[in-house]
Amino acid sequence: MIRLIENELQARDEAGGNKYVFVKFNAWLYQGYDDARAALIEVVASTLAKEAEKRETCIEQ
Description:
Layout: H1 2-16, H2 36-55
């Protein structure tokens, strides 16, 4: 279901130009671990950093 929503949002976004950033995190891998929250934050941060690098422009003044 989540993949269907992601695909629909991406299809709508192609005309608009990268409004959404999708973060994929499998919580089942961290079930019962105390560091699950830290792992989630790490995945979100690294995904946002990669997206920021992709969206960076090369405009010189």
